[in-house]
Design goal:
The structure is a single chain. The radius of gyration is 15 Å and the shape is globular. A hairpin with a 3-residue loop joins strand 1 and strand 2. A six-stranded antiparallel β-sheet has the order 1-2-4-5-6-3, covered by helices on one side. 26% of the residues are buried. The chain has one helix and six strands. The longest helix has 20 residues. It starts with 26 loop residues before the first strand and ends with a strand. It is mainly β. Helix content is 13%, strand content 42%.
Length: 149
């Protein structure tokens, strides 16, 4: 994927609905307009969940790894669709997600997501997570839109 600098600082509030401590994207590293995104999440011992997961061997929770992928996908969808004031992007399903090795403090998780199919407002997005050149997780998501409450 070509390394292109985003035009806006990320994660800007207008691109993610999540707020601290649930923001799982530290930076957008690359963007292939309308097709792919590459994001970064630094796994640090200061993350709020490590004191309890697990005290003697801190492991980044798998569900938060999935959330890293989902937030990268949400930013990509938002960049493609623009502002949709009456609609809200939601995960429809998580499929074939694989955890290849645990993430631990000090890891720099780079998530690459790409749209493989789009029908109306629904998307199928696949991705891989890397620490360096090593694939540490992979999976596929469906996203749709709901009316905002």
């Amino acid at each position: 994927m070509p390394e292109t600098a985003p035009r806006t600082p990320f994660p800007a509030p207008e691109f993610l609905k999540q707020r601290y401590p649930m923001v799982m994207v530290d930076r957008v590293l690359a963007l292939e307009e309308g097709h792919k995104i590459r994001t970064l999440k630094n796994i640090t011992v200061n993350d709020t969940h490590f004191p309890g997961h697990f005290p003697d061997y801190p492991v980044f929770p798998g569900v938060l790894t999935i959330e890293c992928f989902a937030q990268a996908a949400a930013i990509l969808i938002r960049l493609i669709d623009g502002e949709t004031p009456k609609l809200f992007d939601v995960i429809g399903s998580v499929m074939d997600f694989r955890f290849i090795r645990p993430l631990v403090p000090g890891d720099r998780l780079e998530v690459e997501m790409g749209i493989t199919k789009a029908v109306g407002t629904n998307r199928i997005i696949e991705g891989k997570g890397y620490v360096g050149a090593e694939v540490v997780a992979s999976g596929k998501f469906t996203f749709g839109k709901l009316e905002r409450p």
